[in-house]
Model the fold of this input.
Amino acid sequence: MKNEKYKLGDLIEQTFVTNSNLEFGMSNVRGMTITKQIIPTKANIKNTELSKFIIVRPFYFIYNPRTHGKKIGLGYNNTDESFIISWNNIAFHIKPKAKNIILPDYLFIHFNRSEWDREACYRSWGSSTEVFSWNDMCDMEIDLPPVSVQKKYVDVYNAMMQNIKIQEKGINDLKLICDVYIENLRQKATAASIGNYIKESDERNTALQYSVDAVKGITTQKQFIETKADMEGVSLNTYKIVHPKQFAYVPDTSRRGDKISLAYNDSDNVYLVSSISTVFSVSGLLPEYLFLFFRRDDFNRYTRFHSWGSAREVFSFDDMCGVKIPIPDIDFQQAIVNIFYSYSKRKTIVERLKIQMANICPVLVKGALEEGE
Done:
């Protein structure tokens, strides 16, 4: 057998089975991402009528017909459990008569390519909102090698994904260990104000020794990023200098999703941040250990609760000095930091592997089609 061309509509069919018996609850609601992952929904579903939500069985697909730039939100349920999605989305599966023509895992590999996203977005239509309809999906064409060839490349893909899942489990174990250590410290150790260990820095770029390349933004995810501000014509002489092992944060906590924008310079480079930011250094305490507490959700809640103001709410440096954390000896601090950085390193590796997996899907499809010729 050789490759054959099909309309997707000949291979897939939409499902309309709803959660009418309320078999599934709020914890079973899922959404999908433009990176083709299924995730717990981010929507506020409190007081939402779930009986109209669509049931998604194992080996079913879901997608959001509203396009997002150059990508389509889509996911594939490759688990043994069912879940539900909002009726605004579309769920579908391979037709029973087509199961000897196409494997669901292979179809997902086909969807998980930038080429497919581009075609889907090209077929989308609308004014204020562009929509990739079910009819548009069914009208797309797909070249398919024999199922035996599909399975060969699906096995390669699934083996690589299994490796990522094993890596993720190790990451979660490390994070749990780190969280348990910190929680035990909070409950058992005496807390002390960090004001005894931090000092504000107001060093400015007055000599313009650092250029626009050093300018960074600060995110609520606790990272320094390339600035998104338009720096054309902006004088950098008032910008504050952030040396390695120093912190910077934005005191204004208003309109930041109940989080504070804060970051730690763990690089060997000197950064510049806006003059509205507060910069400080740490002594007598490992800065990496302090950063562990700044990354916690309860620290975000603390900063919002202790912010003050009318037009805008501010978490001042005096407020920062009043933050209390347990402070064990340096060796214990270092042990926790080592666990955390091992976790962070592995997490970065896994994220890179996921990007590589998205890049390898076109290679797998190309290889399967060449083998099926």
About this structure: The chain is about 35% helix and 20% strand.
